[in-house]
Amino acid sequence: MRGALLVWYRNNVTKKPLDSYSYFRTLMSMNRFIKCPPLTSVDLQELWSPDIINPREPHSPKTNNSAKEKTTSVIEGKAIAKDIKSQIADEINGMKRSIGKVPGLAVIIIGKRSDSDTFVDLKLKACDRVGIASFKAELPEDCTEDELLGVISDFNLNPSVHGVIVQLPLPKHLSEEKVMSAVSAEKDVDGFHPLHIGNLAIRGRDPLFIPCAARCCIELLLRYDVQIMGKKAVVIGRSKIVGLPISLLLQRYNATVTVIHAFTKNPERLTREADIVVADAGIPNLVRGHWLKEGAFVIDMGTNSIKDANCPHGYHLVGDVCFKEAITKVSAITPVPGGVGPITISMLLTNTLDSAKRMYKFS
Amino acid sequence: MRGALLVWYRNNVTKKPLDSYSYFRTLMSMNRFIKCPPLTSVDLQELWSPDIINPREPHSPKTNNSAKEKTTSVIEGKAIAKDIKSQIADEINGMKRSIGKVPGLAVIIIGKRSDSDTFVDLKLKACDRVGIASFKAELPEDCTEDELLGVISDFNLNPSVHGVIVQLPLPKHLSEEKVMSAVSAEKDVDGFHPLHIGNLAIRGRDPLFIPCAARCCIELLLRYDVQIMGKKAVVIGRSKIVGLPISLLLQRYNATVTVIHAFTKNPERLTREADIVVADAGIPNLVRGHWLKEGAFVIDMGTNSIKDANCPHGYHLVGDVCFKEAITKVSAITPVPGGVGPITISMLLTNTLDSAKRMYKFS
């Protein structure tokens, strides 16, 4: 396999051979404040190695012992998000100075849900902190589809708005598909439009926006110098907001991806073989210690609220991964709360900035 | 897992419990000449079974011994395609009688390639056999992008044309992305438009068209009463025409899908665990006998031409699966040639008929 890669790198990327790890470092050395390079730059040519095509002997699985030397990193999402946000703020200042414009993000929220309110407030505060102009539209729980579509259409047409997001979930009487497709693809900074998902799936294409949760995962893997290509990745859960885009993006990064869902038989066994585990099932502590391979890199996208009278809001958050069991086995893990949450929000800001730069042709 | 399924079926599909197999038979009993039901009808609710959420003991993998009783079926693509085509022809006759219209398919071919010519001829002959009006545009190898886009635009506007396909591969000087996106999504019967791929990937969505190779795979699995849900499926290769849409569609059918590509380590071991194997690597005889689990259902999408002076065309076709080794182990396999090829073409006719029915609001 390696042989094939070296050939490829020599022919297409650089004069001297590079292994995949160095290749990604080269990509990452581009002066970008987030690590995720253009997708098409990770679409490697499908070179099948001779020993796969004409095997001498059946291969035997290799085990990863490097984990034993590692101590587990608990990933501090807040610190990474702070770093990204400060660099977004710098870019926005530069934009303001040179063209007198700033990015704008519109958030639409329907009805009252304590969790939605919390998420929206976090997004708006984050905008404020980096200098993104924010617009908030609050509609009543019983608003009609036409009312909502009207608000979306206004934001689509507003030249000061470069990103439009509708906070999910919607009340039952509104069609999510209809509402989400009403957001202009050019302003769909959540990246949920089927056109973006299609371009995320298709090698050789670069979607206008990559969903924030997926960007967050790749951001973490690249920041922690985790080799993705050729590694086994398991994505547990396949929501269209988190699991699906993450599995598609990891695939684009040339991981060998298996998506585990509620109908998967023996998910623990499949997960135990993974070097990279992303959990998005929405089940508190679903992923137990015996599910995990020693040295795995674990990204917990779960945010499950558990009633708790001792907490100010009356609940506390837990992830999909049983943290206290995982911490003893894995090389790195994102805690809940304080893990992926802040980074995912900073990815929303990144998408909004990218959108504004595209619309103002500012680079 | 089963427990969860029964609950779901009782609540949402029928009053009496059904297992997944009976569920698909119910779907298939709809009076449709192809077996593939609307995608959203296979989007099952994500019910996590209690013994996964709170395991008593770590699960042990189950081995499938049913294979031992099976004799291997060599799937006769021509017979299945003939059956599908005769029913398409009946529908088209009905359409002609009642509204005086027939479906129309436009095929655009650029330059001279013996393989492309063969494929196009097969498609046009098939149209003729079922009563689909066909339109063929031949452009020279050195045609400009504007010339090609002009031809596409004419077919997009032509009300007698319900499907437009551009034969791939294109000459190097033409942008495949630009050309393919020029085909109106409503007439993209190949189903390659990112909008269709996105809607294929997103649970709860039904794309206007499903790529023919993917429809072909599901068609075979359903015709052979293979249970897909919860089964391990391995797709070897990830081309945007074959491997990608197949992996997305198998996922929608609730298989546990792993996509194997050139950078996958130890592909034979991963493939050996699969109940359903789809090969689309474009490597003659890549999948050897020791890659396959006993009783697996093998769909060989490979069509590799091997120079052969003794053959009339100067070459013969072989698949990605080593047929003579596979036949001794698997429960069913598609031969090359004569396997998936004819069925895939009949799926193109199906997509064209569906498109015409949609445009004429004829059911």
UniProtKB/TrEMBL annotation, chains A, B:
InterPro entries according to UniProt: Aminoacid_DH-like_N_sf (IPR046346), NAD(P)-bd_dom_sf (IPR036291), THF_DH/CycHdrlase (IPR000672), THF_DH/CycHdrlase_cat_dom (IPR020630), THF_DH/CycHdrlase_CS (IPR020867), THF_DH/CycHdrlase_NAD-bd_dom (IPR020631)
Ranges where the Tetrahydrofolate dehydrogenase/cyclohydrolase NAD(P)-binding domain occurs: 211-358
Family matches, as Pfam families: THF_DHG_CYH, THF_DHG_CYH_C
GO cellular component, as recorded: cytosol
Catalytic activity field: (6R)-5,10-methylene-5,6,7,8-tetrahydrofolate + NADP(+) = (6R)-5,10-methenyltetrahydrofolate + NADPH
Assembly behavior: Homodimer.
Function per UniProt: Catalyzes the oxidation of 5,10-methylenetetrahydrofolate to 5,10-methenyltetrahydrofolate and then the hydrolysis of 5,10-methenyltetrahydrofolate to 10-formyltetrahydrofolate.
Keywords: Hydrolase, Multifunctional enzyme, NADP, One-carbon metabolism, Oxidoreductase, Photorespiration
Protein name as annotated: Metabolite interconversion enzyme
